[in-house]
Design brief:
Chains A, B: GO terms for molecular function: acyltransferase activity. Chains A, B: InterPro entries: SpoVAD, SpoVAD_sf, Thiolase-like. 2 copies of one chain form a homodimer. Chain A folds into 2 domains: 169 residues, Stage V sporulation protein AD (Peroxisomal Thiolase, Chain A, domain 1, 3-Layer(aba) Sandwich); 165 residues, 3-Layer(aba) Sandwich (Peroxisomal Thiolase, Chain A, domain 1). In chain A, strands 1, 2, 3, 4, 5, 6, 8, 9, 10, 11, 13 and 16 form a 12-stranded mixed beta sheet that branches. Chain A has a two-stranded parallel ribbon with strand order 7-12. In chain A, strands 14-15 form a two-stranded antiparallel ribbon. By secondary structure, chain A is of the alpha/beta class. At the A-B interface, helix 4, strand 5, helix 5 and helix 12 of A face helix 4, strand 5, helix 5 and helix 12 of B.
Chain lengths: 353, 353
């Protein structure tokens, strides 16, 4: 991003931190003080395996049900993130959290023992972006000194929630993605500490975009139009282009969704090319690990952000990335009633400090 | 609230708008520019029937499924609220919305045609409070000029989601509440217009509170401890007592929950007495309408706030109320796995202009 685009960032009155049609340029940066990731065994075996903070051995994490296991992922991820930040849970003013399950039960049962005020969120697999966006408003707006964001997904609880319980031995087409068993937690702060991992400086919350697709086994294609819309809008609002970013990282489009995204943006004259990266593609070696199109779920972008993307930023290998978690707004009820699967994507501008 | 408590509102540094342990005193008030309520036939027949903006005749609202009907409630409520405010949907910078269904599908399919950036929320029946809280942060923090909050519930879609489809003819104990078929929409603005309905000046977001109750047919008792915790914390953070408010209005505790709330607060030396009101008790004539403990659902507090509470504030019959939507964090999965039903409640300080 050069000086010229820097100064022409916002077209609305400066008093309103609104930027362009849909974005926000934060009046003060939000510092990511610490983060943590907890994942399952398959994620541990993937290309990023060594980077995650903790991995379970049997994906039940010592619990009796998949849902309890997912709750334990959130509990452990937040515990680790607090520990790394040297903070106690009472230092966290507000929690922003969610998951993929009906009524977000992984969050309810995972985080209640922290006894902090909770904002419960649902944005399907985009919830990591949703939680970081809303927490950034709270922190940058001086409503909180510290906020924590936690999201998770679990392969087995998600299959039961959206498709079939694993015991049914359901067949999966190659366009299907593999829901990541994992959770990422992030501690956001309103002041720098000298050892923050990165900072959040801009936001482009997304709209629901529905191209009418109805295939719950091809989430990538359902979400790609929303990712394209948010990314395009982000460039317009901030007056930037792909060259201004080291990477543009979507949440969990997988290989099918990536192809759709790149094609859609090409028709708008935007070429992401090598700058595009997708957390779902990075987290597994799809051929060796039989995970088909790639990883997905709220835990996918969250664990990859914590383990890999923030590492690159904190080590200054990258200066600026656009992080775009993507969500498919599907439920088994709407799916069985013949509804389409609309998508949504929220973008965050992350910068090295 | 007298002058003394007014000036000793916040104990944290003024630079942070945090107030006490858990609350926020908004740096600039948020104006409720307009609101609208759409309800079903049973709500129309209740004591507040004449006050709602629109009521359907058969609760399907011309749709094929209960879920589509609930989506139409949200769509219509927002349409009416925009019309009353004299605004177009493109004037609304961000939507904050949710419902009770798995993956919040009433919101996804109800609001996508407005093509506005959406923050999807889940706080069970407290979602009206959650949406108004987060939208207030966005508006008061100068991140948006206009935001809209929309929540809904539908008796038939909720029974299917949480208990049994209506066709099963399930028996209901007297402690059961009746999920309100209804939606409320609110347009929040960052500047006064001279014809706003009320203003939001303070927030006390709530924690999850779990007393271990497991009865999905007694939501009032499950939520009352959370309401008590949030109300007690609000008084402590703002240095106020029940006498400082014309009413303290909970969302949907019903008659059983009201009794529990008043008893719990009594043990902390807080006597709400006649100042307590519950939207779930107000919306139906429970004896005549066979609605047992009272109304419940995200649509309950939202429609009663729009139709009745804001009317009282705008007509200056009340000067200041504490509005406390209450939620039971239940899903059929967690319930069938033997989990408890934790509660959450978010409080908003609403004042006449």
């Amino acid at each position: 991003m050069n000086k010229t685009t820097e100064t022409s960032f916002c077209s609305r009155p400066a008093a309103l931190f609104a930027c362009g049609r849909q974005s926000i340029r934060l009046p003060v940066p939000v510092y990511i003080r610490s983060s943590a990731s907890v994942v399952g065994s398959r994620e541990k075996q993937g290309p990023l395996g060594e980077l995650f903070d903790f991995a379970g051995e049997d994906d039940l994490f010592g619990c009796d049900t998949w849902e309890d296991a997912e709750s334990s992922l959130q509990r452990d991820a937040l515990h680790l993130a607090l520990q790394k930040a040297g903070l106690h849970s009472t230092d966290i003013r507000y929690l922003f959290a969610g998951d993929l399950l009906g009524q977000s039960i992984a969050t309810s049962f995972g985080l209640m023992q922290y006894e902090r005020p909770l904002f419960g969120l649902y944005g399907a697999c985009s919830t990591c972006g949703l939680s970081l966006t809303l927490a950034s408003l709270a922190v940058s707006g001086s409503f909180a000194d510290f906020a924590a964001c936690v999201t998770s997904s679990h392969f087995a609880s998600a299959e039961k929630e959206f498709r079939f319980p694993l015991g049914y031995g359901n067949q999966r087409p190659l366009s299907a993605s593999w829901t990541v068993t994992g959770s990422g937690a992030f501690i956001l702060a309103n002041a720098p500490s000298g050892h923050d991992r990165a900072m959040i400086t801009g936001l482009t919350p997304g709209k629901i975009i529905d191209y009418g697709l109805r295939d719950s086994m091809n989430m990538g294609a359902c979400m790609a139009p929303a990712a394209a819309d948010t990314i395009r809008q982000h460039f317009e609002d901030f007056g930037t282009s792909p060259d201004d970013y080291d990477k543009i990282v979507t949440g969990d489009l997988g290989k099918v969704g990536q192809r759709v995204l790149l094609d859609l943006l090409q028709t708008s004259g935007i070429d992401l090319g090598e700058r595009h990266m997708d957390c779902g593609i990075e987290i597994y070696d799809c051929k060796k690990q039989d995970t088909h199109a790639g990883g997905s779920g709220c835990g996918c972008s969250a664990s990859v952000l914590s383990a890999f993307l923030l590492k690159q930023l904190s080590e200054k290998k990258w200066k600026r990335i656009l992080f775009v978690p993507t969500g498919a707004l599907l439920s088994k009820t709407s799916y069985n009633e013949g509804q389409s699967v609309p998508g949504i994507a929220h973008a965050l501008l992350l910068e090295a400090i």
